[in-house]
Design brief:
By secondary structure, the protein is an alpha/beta fold. The chain has five domains: 86 residues, Translation factors (Elongation Factor Tu (Ef-tu), domain 3), CATH 2.40.30.10; 185 residues, Nucleotide-binding domain of ferredoxin-NADP reductase (FNR) module (Rossmann fold, 3-Layer(aba) Sandwich); 99 residues, Orthogonal Bundle (Fumarate Reductase Iron-sulfur Protein, Chain B, domain 2), CATH 1.10.1060.10; 154 residues, FAD/NAD(P)-binding domain (3-Layer(bba) Sandwich); 154 residues, 3-Layer(bba) Sandwich (FAD/NAD(P)-binding domain). It contains 26 helices and 31 strands. Strands 10-9-8-7-11-12-15 form a seven-stranded mixed β-sheet, sandwiched between helices. The protein has a six-stranded antiparallel β-sheet with strand order 1-2-5-4-3-6, sandwiched between helices. It has a five-stranded parallel β-sheet with strand order 18-17-16-19-31. Helix 6 links the parallel strand 11 and strand 12. Helix 5 packs parallel to helix 6 and helix 15 packs antiparallel against helix 16.
């Protein structure tokens, strides 16, 4: 029998054939990982196929071929006894076989056929072998028994759950890593998107990861250059330098683009058809789990005010950015109150253009480093992410933090000079999120901007309300300094309504327009007996002492706070402020800290991440309870509180179920210090001195929702002074909206 004769051709799965070919020379020389190139007839293309196994004694090799296009369809149609027109090999470098230790080998689709001889050779070299064999469904699983025979552990995954693990090879791999498996080497062979996804899963663990590429080629000997790939900063040729390369260095996007160049031809046998490449790529991306934010250990962090979240590494950021589907109609942008161009900056991360990504964020958000830390993304941009329909949203906030922190560390924070000036003067009352955002937009539009702040430091709630371990104050100062560089003037220790009235700023100080963003800084109390006992703080006072005045460093600083070391602290409320207060109390040395909340956990308005962190740190949650009286000594010091149990009734105006007291359920709990964190009202100072400014019954300024224009000409308002207590990002959105309206007002007048 002559060389190149088909000896057998058997279907082993849907559209997948095992073909044995007579070839004396190739069968004697072939080693695991090498490939051949064949042609069916004189007009046929040169098709590269990896050799699954060889039998030198019988002078034959085995190929496994997927019928995905014209050439492979013709090959699968050939019958035993027919002769191939051309057959050349073995080509490429053999797989690197050595004793590595524990090796995980991942085969996807017909890539499993290539993985098998490599797994067999590595097992014979003394390695501990784990194999993961993936297919779309049970009918497409191949070489199960063969892989099992050479594996110490073997796993099957199917996309539809019809056999083995319901999911993808990357999910199975991540599960093994999460369960504590340690791998010394990973080898991925399959569709290009799958190999890229595997490489990104292993990247954070620094596991050497090898991928086997079979890109478009013509000659297979290095002459044509059609199989070139980018590996790190070098151009390599698959046929002579490969087919195996470091998966962490391969530019998969380049290969995929090149493979799309010939849409009328089939891809290599280990890939899916060209027509399905984009769909498969998206499917593989969906397999990547949401990356976890690195954090300080709970037992370490409760003794320090250092930041809890440590931020994404470059590898984690890249892996998370891969999950973004780059939707044509990005709902995440619609969900962002400031309209941040989220897909654009994430795409720049994938291109390793981190500084450009930070600049893209800055186009819409002057407080990117702040928002990356404290914005409730789960209720805003991430809530609208299309991935939430089947899993978890892209970690937009973590990616925002990564690029803005990167820019800061790189020193790329210098602001561009404003080249044009309008001559108009705008006063911003309050330096919180809405005020800073409004100031940033207006200064870029060419107006002169002055920010007035009642405190001695700038940042509003960002400075006095949010603890250092969530938002380091140097970040707020840096964001303020960036606005100073643009030309914004900041004036501290100025209480508008007392130092100046609104009318005086306009008539005597020459301001053409005013934005009021003073927040809602008047603490709400419960109005129950004993609320004036020593040992009961409002959250505003408690957090201001700690955050703004740094009382946690007392006596190194002059501002004191009641010593809670070894004491029992209770915080009343369920929002972020209550969670912040509870976690601060732990760091001040409290032996027990309870959150007392009148609804259930499901109704808590606090960020999910903050609830998780509080629970990890040891905060207790006392749900469906509320205080009805505080009890103290004759000297007026708190000793205990009387609580009553609640149950949930019908939803109230907020949509949350209304808490209803349970009769005769009162009980007394000992407590040393209480922090009341049940929200804030509006400070009446401006209302008292501005009679032509309209307020509602709660003391909030009434504005036009579209322009933030108040009842007073030239005066605009936004943030908590309009909405009541809300979030940083909603206040920023109001600041942006007001800036656009102020610019129009000044242009028209």
């Amino acid at each position: 029998m002559i060389d190149k004769t088909i000896l057998s051709s058997v279907w082993i799965a849907e559209n997948i054939k095992r073909i044995e070919v007579k070839t004396r020379s190739i069968s004697r020389k072939q080693k695991p990982g090498q490939f051949i190139i064949l042609r069916i007839d004189d007009s046929g293309e040169r098709v590269p196929l990896t050799i699954v196994s060889s039998d030198p004694e019988n002078e034959q090799i085995t190929l496994i071929v997927q019928d995905v296009g014209k050439s492979t369809h013709a090959l699968c149609s050939m019958q035993p006894g027919e002769v191939l027109h051309d057959l050349v090999g073995p080509l490429g470098n053999p797989s690197h076989i050595d004793h590595f230790g524990h090796v995980v080998i991942i085969g996807g689709g017909v890539g499993t056929a290539v993985a098998y001889p490599v797994a067999k050779a590595l097992k014979e070299a003394g390695n501990h072998i784990t194999t993961i064999n993936g297919a779309r469904n049970k009918e497409l699983v191949i070489l199960e028994q063969e892989l099992l025979a050479v594996s110490d552990e073997s796993y099957i995954t199917t996309d539809d759950g019809s056999y083995g693990f319901h999911g993808f090879v990357t999910q199975q791999l991540q599960f093994l890593l999460d369960s504590g498996k340690k791998f010394d080497r990973a080898i991925a062979i399959g569709p290009l998107p799958m190999m890229r996804a595997v490489a990104e899963v292993t990247r954070p663990y620094k596991i050497p990861t090898i991928v086997s590429l079979n890109s478009i080629m013509v000659d297979g000997t290095g002459m044509c250059g059609g199989c070139r790939v980018k590996v790190g900063n070098e151009t390599k040729f698959t046929c002579v330098d490969g087919p195996e390369f470091d998966g962490h260095l391969v530019d998969f996007s380049m290969i995929m683009n090149r493979n799309r160049a010939y849409k009328h031809e089939e891809q290599c046998s280990i890939d899916l058809s060209v027509e399905k490449l984009k769909a498969e790529e998206k499917k593989e991306i969906k397999k990547i789990p949401r990356q976890k934010m690195p954090e300080r250990d709970p037992q370490e962090r409760i003794h320090t005010f250092d930041e809890v979240n440590l931020g994404f590494t470059e590898e984690l950021a890249h892996l998370e950015a891969l999950r973004c589907l780059q939707c044509r109609k990005p709902l995440c942008v619609e969900g962002c109150p400031v309209g941040e161009k989220i897909p654009d900056f994430i795409k720049l991360i994938l291109e390793n253009k981190y500084l450009e990504a930070a600049d893209k964020i800055k186009e819409d958000n002057v407080l990117g480093r702040v928002c990356g830390r404290v914005c409730p993304q789960s209720d805003q941009c991430e809530k609208t992410c299309i991935l939430t329909k089947r899993g978890e949203a892209v970690a937009i906030g973590a990616l925002e933090r990564f690029v803005t922190d990167f820019a800061r560390k790189a020193g790329n924070v210098k602001e561009k000079t404003i080249s044009h000036k309008t001559g108009h003067k705008v006063a911003i009352i309050g330096s919180g999120p809405s005020g800073l955002t409004c100031a940033g937009d207006l200064i870029r539009l060419g107006h002169d901007v002055t920010v007035f702040e009642a405190f001695h430091d700038f940042g509003g709630v960002l400075i006095y309300g949010i603890p250092e371990f969530r938002l380091p104050k140097e970040i707020v100062h840096e964001q303020v300094d960036s606005l100073r560089e643009l030309g914004v003037e900041f004036i501290a220790n100025t209480v508008v309504g007392l130092t100046y009235t609104i009318d005086e700023l306009m008539s005597e100080e020459g301001f053409d327009s005013i934005f009021i963003g003073v927040g809602a800084g008047l603490p709400n109390f419960m109005n129950i007996p004993g609320e004036d006992l020593v040992g009961i703080y409002s959250s505003n006072e408690f957090l201001t002492r700690v955050n703004l005045m740094k009382a946690w460093q007392f006596p190194k600083v002059d501002t004191p706070i009641i010593d809670v070391k070894g004491k029992h602290v209770a915080v009343i409320g369920g929002g972020n402020t209550a969670l912040d207060s509870a976690r601060v109390a732990l760091r001040l040395g409290a032996s027990q800290v309870d959150i007392v909340y009148r609804r259930s956990e499901a109704e808590m308005p606090g960020r999910l991440e903050e609830i998780k962190h509080a629970r990890e740190e040891g905060v207790n949650f006392n749900f469906l309870s509320a205080p009805v009286e505080f009890i103290g000594t004759q000297e007026g010091r708190l000793t205990s509180m009387k609580l009553i149990h609640m149950e949930l009734g019908e939803p109230d105006s907020s949509g949350r179920r209304r808490p209803v007291t349970i009769k005769d359920s009162e009980h007394v709990n000992p407590v040393d210090l209480v922090v009341i964190a049940i929200g804030n009202g509006s400070n009446p100072i401006i209302q008292k001195t501005t009679p032509d400014l309209q307020f509602n019954k709660w003391g909030n300024i009434i504005v036009d929702d579209n322009s933030m224009q108040t009842s007073k000409a030239g005066v605009f308002a936004g943030g908590d002074i309009v909405t009541g207590g809300a979030t940083v990002i909603l206040a920023m959105g109001a600041g942006r909206k007001a800036a656009a309206a102020i610019d129009k007002y000044l242009s028209d007048n």
